[in-house]
């Protein structure tokens, strides 16, 4: 396997759900134990069409700054847990579409780590889509961690 990447890269999709912390902890612990790295994907939703381009540009810049703040905080957690900074990907568009595009483009990504939602609405739209309609298009394994796990439970399984 001469084409295999040197490190396992565990990709975590950044959102603002409570289960993100579970997916991130799991990915960090697996990366630490296997000598791998963590990658973060932050997808900015495109702003609604505006009559004035300057307003759209301002909304895009504010979204980018918010994303950078969120990712910087998560990057600090990754460094603390693994000793290495994460690989960071910023994209604009639909979260599912940009995730699939990144997975198709970046051969260094080894494993996709997601946490299932804990609410009554189910595991979440991204997990639901990937395990049903898009499962056959994935080129990497996907680990779905129950979003209700405690830190101790994640630590016990990693």
Short key terms for the protein model shown above:
single chain; 44% helix; Rossmann fold; globular; disordered N terminus; 5-stranded parallel β-sheet; 5 helices; 5 strands; 158 residues
Low-pLDDT windows of residues = 1-5
CATH class identity: Alpha Beta
Number of domains: 1
Sketch the major β-sheet: 5 strands, parallel
Our Rg estimate from Cα atoms comes to 16 Å
Give the name of the CATH architecture: 3-Layer(aba) Sandwich
**What is the third-level CATH name, the topology?**
Rossmann fold
With strands numbered from the N-terminus, the spatial order across the biggest sheet is 3-2-1-4-5
* Total beta-strand segments: 5
Shape: globular
Output the number of helix runs.
Answer: 5
Q: Tell me the β content.
A: 15-25%
Span between N and C termini? Answer: 26 Å
Listing every helix as H and every strand as E from the N terminus to the C terminus, the arrangement reads: EHEHEHEHEH
The mean pLDDT is 90
Description:
- With 158 residues, the chain is α/β, with parallel strands linked by helices.
- It has one domain (9-157): HUPs (Rossmann fold), CATH 3.40.50.
- 44% of the residues lie in helices and 20% in strands.
């Amino acid at each position: 396997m001469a084409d295999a990447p040197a490190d396992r890269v565990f990709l975590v999709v950044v959102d603002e759900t409570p289960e993100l912390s579970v997916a991130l902890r799991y990915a960090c612990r697996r990366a630490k134990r296997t000598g791998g790295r963590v990658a973060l994907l932050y997808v900015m939703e495109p702003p609604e069409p505006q009559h004035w381009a300057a307003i759209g540009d301002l909304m895009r810049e504010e979204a980018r700054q918010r994303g950078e703040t969120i990712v910087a905080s998560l990057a600090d957690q990754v460094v603390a847990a693994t000793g290495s900074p994460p690989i960071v990907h910023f994209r604009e568009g639909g979260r599912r579409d940009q995730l699939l595009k990144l997975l198709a483009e970046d051969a260094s990504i080894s494993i996709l780590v997601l946490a299932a939602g804990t609410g009554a609405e189910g595991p979440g739209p991204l997990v639901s889509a990937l395990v049903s309609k898009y499962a056959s298009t994935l080129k990497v394994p996907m680990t779905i961690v129950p979003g209700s796990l405690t830190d101790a439970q994640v630590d016990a399984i990693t």
